């Protein structure tokens, strides 16, 4: 490690790629070809059945979702299990659709895997396995800063040593030498947004699926039962939605949890989530 030390971006990228190597998983690309992550020895064999580990390896994630959005979504999804930050993911060709989430101990990681495995996220079931090695945050937590620096230095050397023999890189190089060209770039599609259910807390609630004829006064009668109500804003052009503002996110969260799926007319369930900022 030089005097200046590696940048945070480089460290996270190296960690993501090395964890993928050690996961020994062949992740499919968008065109159906295998993106072979290889293994620690660099021979390209996919070793499965890792022992219980405090770091989980997630794959089959929707590659169209921005990395930052996916990481925030995963943080919310695993919130009941108190995941350690940062969640490791990267958007390069080799790491798309994959992520690593670490926990304070193996038991918590195992419980999170059993509960969340195959959860449908952005239209695809999340596939979860134990990682073959610990993430940086776990090494630092369990062994300290000095051990982490040694761990990162060893990983950097291993990456250099296996760079030219990595199966995925050899495949890409062969395609390039054969004169393979990329397909014409398709028209850009709208980027997927985080589902309403996973939006971070704030003081404004977004109310949907209101029955026809619902007024601001009708909503006030329902929401004023909860402390901190400030304002109710309906949308004339779209009468089945409204925005309800509270003094802070703590009071809005209480109302959201209590009134989501509440039947305001005795029949129609209204959907209550945090508003998108």
Automatic annotation (TrEMBL):
Signal peptide: none annotated. The keyword RNA-binding applies. Residues 154-194 are annotated as: Disordered. Keywords: RNA-binding. PROSITE patterns: RRM. SMART domains: RRM. Gene3D superfamilies: 3.30.70.330. Residues 54-133, 203-277 form the RRM domain. GO terms for molecular function: RNA binding. It comes from the Eukaryota. The keyword RNA-binding applies. Residues 157-176 have a biased composition (Basic residues). Pfam families: RRM_1. This is RNA-binding domain-containing protein. It comes from Cutaneotrichosporon oleaginosum.
